Amino acid sequence: MSDEFFGDVDEGFVRDDPLVDWDTKFMRQALALAEQALEQDEVPVGAVVTHGRRVIGAGWNQREALQDPTAHAEMIAITQAAASLESWRLEECTLYVTLEPCPMCAGALVQSRIARVVYGARDPKAGAVDSLFRLLDDTRLNHRAEITGGVLAPECGGILSHFFQEKRKQGKK
């Protein structure tokens, strides 16, 4: 993982500057990670975990490279964040991810006690935050997270659409 994704973002900005759109700024970092996944012929999803305004975890889908069905961008970013904080409790953290988390990742977010989830594109086939299920605000579970969806949705959805269009073309050859 490149060090460029970790640490303070734009150190020249005041941390609580109301003119900075932090959600967009961190989602752009997640999109850059999705591009890395695309370059590796992985489903292009990227994720970063922040603590305050500092990135403490980052990842992209690596299921093919690792031959691991759990190697989703969110899972990798959560693991790095927990290692960074030396705690499995990510209570003051935010996850930024380019695609609405699936049930596995949403479960990991509940288990990690992540405070907030910001996602780009909705996932009508597997989304477990808003689309199919609402696991992160289910009152029956022991933790709920604040949810913000649709950040840079056209860009986040576009990279996925392009990837799957290319895969379908390859399959027709």
Number of DSSP strand runs: 6
pLDDT averaged over residues:
91
Strand order of the largest sheet: 1-3-2-4-5-6
Helical proportion, percent range = 25-40%
Our Rg estimate from Cα atoms comes to: 15 Å
Low-confidence stretches: 9-15
Characterization of this structure:
The structure is a single chain. The chain has 173 residues and is α/β, with parallel strands linked by helices. It has helices at 22-39, 63-66, 73-85, 103-112, 153-172; strands at 7-8, 46-51, 54-60, 93-99, 116-121, 146-148. Strands 1-3-2-4-5-6 form a 6-stranded mixed β-sheet. Helix 1 (22-39) runs parallel beside helix 5 (153-172) and helix 3 (73-85) packs parallel to helix 4.
Brief digest:
With 173 residues, the protein is an alpha/beta fold.
SSE topology sketch:
Blueprint: E1 7-8, H1 22-39, E2 46-51, E3 54-60, H2 63-66, H3 73-85, E4 93-99, H4 103-112, E5 116-121, E6 146-148, H5 153-172
Parallel strand pairs: 4-5, 5-6
Antiparallel strand pairs: 1-3, 2-3, 2-4
Helix pairs in contact: 1-5, 3-4
